[in-house]
Structure to design on (78 residues):
């Protein structure tokens, strides 16, 4: 499908198409929307983490480290 993009956006889309990574404008737009969705999810996770810090919901790093090492059988570098 062909879209009537504003000139600046059309240049960006055409530049992505020229890389050969994307076969169509649809693929470029789909990847862009996915990237926006991913960014929004990361932003939400960061906000949640900051809210946890503000509320005092913290764990010492050594506890988290020990838990992850036990869970994934990671030996300690000494």
């Amino acid at each position: 499908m062909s879209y009537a993009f504003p000139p600046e956006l059309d240049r960006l889309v055409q530049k992505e198409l020229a890389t050969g990574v994307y076969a169509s404008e649809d693929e470029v737009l789909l990847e862009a929307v996915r990237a926006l969705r991913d960014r929004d999810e990361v932003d939400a996770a960061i906000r949640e983490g900051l809210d946890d810090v503000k509320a005092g919901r913290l764990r010492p790093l050594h506890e988290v480290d020990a838990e992850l090492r036990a869970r994934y059988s990671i030996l300690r570098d000494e």
About this structure: Residues 11 and 17 are 10 Å apart (CA to CA). Residues 25-54 form the longest helix (30 residues). The two ends are 58 Å apart (CA to CA).
